[in-house]
Amino acid sequence: MTHWRENIENFWYNQEWKDFRDRMLRNEESFDPQFSLPLPQPDLASDGITISRPLLNCTRAEHAYARGGSPLEDAVRKLAVQMEAGYAPAASEHLDATVFPSGMAAISTLIHFLSYFIPPSANRKELHFVVGDQLYPETRSLFHDYVPQLGFGKSIPVDMGKPNMVAEILAYNQGNIVALYYEPLSNPQLKYTNTRALRQIADWHDLPMIVDSTLLPPYLQQQFRLGADIVIQSASKYLSGQADILAGICTASASCMRSLRKFQRIHGNVADQQVLQKLYRRIPLQGERMEAYLKNAAPLVEYLCSSPAVEKVLYPDLEKETRYGSAGAVISFLLAGHSEQEKQEKEKNVVQAVCEYQNVPISCEVGFGQEKYLLLGQSHFGTGTPPGLIRLAVGRSDPEPVIAFLEKIMKVEKVMKR
């Protein structure tokens, strides 16, 4: 009987892919997505929805039905490869991408898909995913609650920012690890994981690495350059910039994508054509939007670091790891207080103030990468989040009214009382 590792290696984690990945890993540093600009712009029909005929002409068999693909989807997939690894020679020959209805759809479909290459006869209960100990809440629930229902052993959470700890976990579970899964910048605590350092450890055990880099988009850091094997983005955030769509993008080896795309279409988990149209136009402009976010983030970080209402600002200086050393356009901070209960009370009051005030420059909404500024508290993120945590998503408008408003609500007696 074929060992499950051979199934995965024959399927995509083969020597050809590893050689190409290592060539990308050795490439000189550059943070610029290599788009072939200017991009052809599809014309819109009078209803503002119908895609232009050149992108709808079904010249390939798989384009005969929208669920099987379209020229527009092909164009978005090409953009995804370019933004993640356009610097690499022959990237389009070795890499491919696919678009899902959301980031979580991309993650959950990928994990279910990988399970099909590990038959129940392989004694899945002895096999584990090693995952970052700080994951997006729904992702954490997927690995903690649902992956065991696929027959796997419990996922093993570990601080991916501590390579020695990761090495110990992998050595202790030698031969029983399916893959590593983590976020290079965790949500909402913004804890950084060095993909290049993990690559060295994963190579000792010949393990693939799956990365959700939504908080560090390709304009700031390109994960394939650092050694990732599969990269996932929630395209609803930075890649869209308008918060008017849901989408996720998964990029990996061409052989992996051929099988994943077939699996995706069988399950009907495909992106809408209107969503693809918006992504096609917006992905190449992510640099302009990111520059605006980073410009606005700087004064906000400076203000929060100086505020007596704030105990700690969670916004790492990534030095040479990212463009400008930036951690992006999400800033988390802990409110000051003498006890956990006091901090939690202050967090609830700050969130309530934002929700109750009218005509204010901040909204209480999920998400980031929009024109407006968004705020969420620890009570939204739940278990595992430090008491008193506030996550502020930077917008593209003037940050000064936001600073003035934060100064006002964090001076309210019921919020600042100690």
Low-pLDDT stretches: 40-53, 413-418
Total individual domains: 2
Using the 3D structure, state the CATH architecture of the largest domain: 3-Layer(aba) Sandwich
Range of strand content = 5-15%
Strand order of the largest sheet: 1-7-6-5-4-2-3
Q: Averaged pLDDT, please? A: 86
Report what the structure shows.
It is a single chain. The chain is an alpha/beta fold and 418 residues long. It has 2 domains: 4-285, Type I PLP-dependent aspartate aminotransferase-like (Major domain) (Aspartate Aminotransferase, domain 2); 287-416, Aspartate Aminotransferase, domain 1. Helix content is 41%, strand content 14%. The protein has helices at residues 4-11, 15-26, 53-56, 71-85, 91-94, 103-115, 137-146, 163-172, 195-205, 223-226, 254-266, 273-282, 286-306, 340-356, 378-381, 400-409, 413-416, and strands at 95-100, 128-132, 156-158, 177-182, 209-212, 230-234, 248-253, 310-314, 330-335, 362-363, 373-377, 389-393. Strands 1-7-6-5-4-2-3 form a 7-stranded mixed sheet, with helices on both faces. Strands 8-9-12-11-10 form a 5-stranded mixed sheet. α4 runs parallel beside α12 (273-282) and α8 (163-172) packs parallel to α9. The longest helix is centred in the last third of the chain and has 21 residues, at 286-306. Residues 40-53 and 413-418 have low confidence and may be disordered.
Sequence-ordered SSE layout with sheet pairings:
Elements: H1 4-11, H2 15-26, H3 53-56, H4 71-85, H5 91-94, E1 95-100, H6 103-115, E2 128-132, H7 137-146, E3 156-158, H8 163-172, E4 177-182, H9 195-205, E5 209-212, H10 223-226, E6 230-234, E7 248-253, H11 254-266, H12 273-282, H13 286-306, E8 310-314, E9 330-335, H14 340-356, E10 362-363, E11 373-377, H15 378-381, E12 389-393, H16 400-409, H17 413-416
Helix pairs in contact: 4-12, 8-9
